[in-house]
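Working notes for the structural subgroup meeting. M.R. asked for a predicted model of this chain before we commit to crystallization trials. I am recording the input and output together here so anyone reviewing the notebook later can reproduce the run.

Input as submitted:
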Amino acid sequence: MRTLAALSFSLLVLTVPLRAQCELQELKGLNTQPLDFFGKSCAIDGPALIVGAFAASTGRPGAAHVFERRNGRWEQSARLLASDGAGGDEFGNSVGVSGDFAVVGSEYNNGVVGSNAGA
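Returned structure, recorded in token form:
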């Protein structure tokens, strides 16, 4: 009986028509290169958007790109780099935004507590 219920559920899900999706605006960060992983992490709060590119730049220190909504379009207003960024830090692996504040994680940053401790 359990298998029949699962099969019925699967058939029900598969018979629901897919809804069309549309692209409103394609975003690309300034200075992004192939394999930067731009877009791996994103966060939005009202007119502010932040997009991580954890492998940006030589050696993968990473970057985060800040966009602002102006006249109905997203425009890049900043590219954030870690002041102590080093190869392999992956700054931008995680991002967050709230009002005027942006938070950017650097998963493999080496710090006072040790190698790959994060920041």
